[in-house]
Amino acid sequence: MDVELRQLRCLVAIVDEGTFTDAAIALGVSQAAVSRTVASLERALGVRLLRRTSRTVTPTGTGLRVVAQARRVLGEVDHLVREATSGHTRLRIGYAWSALGSHTPTFQRRWAAAHPETDLHLVRVNATTAGLAEGACDLAVLRRPLEDQRFDSAIVGLERRLCAMAADDPLARRRSIRLADISDRTLLVDRRTGTTTPELWPPGSRPDTEETHDVDDWLNLISTGRCVGMTAESTAHQYPRPGIVYRPVRDAEPIAVRLGWWRDDPHPAGQAVIELITALYRTG
């Protein structure tokens, strides 16, 4: 069975315009072409879609269902075309947990001022590539190396590691902590996108772990006092939460912030994004 988009467009035009003549005018074709096209669709589907009289054309019950589905199909195709052709006028930047932390609003404003021709959209996708592999974004802010050879990346900044804990935790009274201070605690981690693993601690003094897959769940569990978490500094800026405090871990290595993109399909604005974000991190 071969159903073509032109057939679906013809059917929708007939229903919308009310007659074959008006549908032909709307489509810019002859009335005979409209008749042939809708007849070929009915043959392909094996059902009658329209009732024809000398004055009116109305859809059958099956026709109504087919028209409704045809509208959805044509809408999806139009969306596909826009996605494919608007790449240079729209820029989607994905991130898993936090975008650029305290730099996020400055980045958005400076980008809009310097590049008004390219609309910027930040998209949160809690996946390993922050939406790159899923096609949800053009560039991705990442805080762990990309192992997939389909992608390239560049380091654009560094962030401190912070420990998130309940506000009434005894460690919350300190201005900073060390890794050893939480080695006997339960550490809440996201193994897909998180930056913290037990390997940060020396063998024999590694904390127990529990796993989560969402920043809100992570924060909710930490607020109970049962677990602590370790994260990039940007998380503290993007997710301040009553009942949660963040303290620097002074003997933990900083986290590299990377910008990733498809190796064989880089966005034209990629270099400008790298330069702006790098400048923001460099100036603090």
Kindly describe this structure.
The chain is α/β, with parallel strands linked by helices and 284 residues long. It has three domains: 82 residues, Orthogonal Bundle (Arc Repressor Mutant, subunit A), CATH 1.10.10; 97 residues, Periplasmic binding protein-like II (D-Maltodextrin-Binding Protein, domain 2), CATH 3.40.190.10; 93 residues, Periplasmic binding protein-like II (D-Maltodextrin-Binding Protein, domain 2). Helix content is 36%, strand content 22%. The protein contains eight helices and twelve strands. The strands form four sheets. A five-stranded mixed beta sheet has the order 4-3-5-12-6, with helices on one face. The longest helix is centred in the N-terminal third of the chain and has 25 residues. The mean pLDDT is 92.
Using brief descriptors, characterize the structure shown:
D-Maltodextrin-Binding Protein, domain 2; 3 domains; 3-stranded antiparallel beta sheet; alpha/beta; Arc Repressor Mutant, subunit A; 22% strand; 284 residues; 8 helices; 5-stranded mixed beta sheet
Topology:
Blueprint: H1 5-17, H2 20-27, H3 31-45, E1 50-52, E2 57-59, H4 61-85, E3 90-95, H5 104-114, E4 119-124, E5 139-142, E6 151-159, E7 161-166, E8 186-189, E9 208-211, H6 215-223, E10 229-232, H7 233-238, E11 244-248, E12 255-262, H8 270-283
Parallel strand pairs: 3-4, 3-5, 8-9
Antiparallel strand pairs: 1-2, 5-12, 6-12, 7-10, 7-11
Helix pairs in contact: 1-2, 1-3, 1-4, 2-3, 5-8
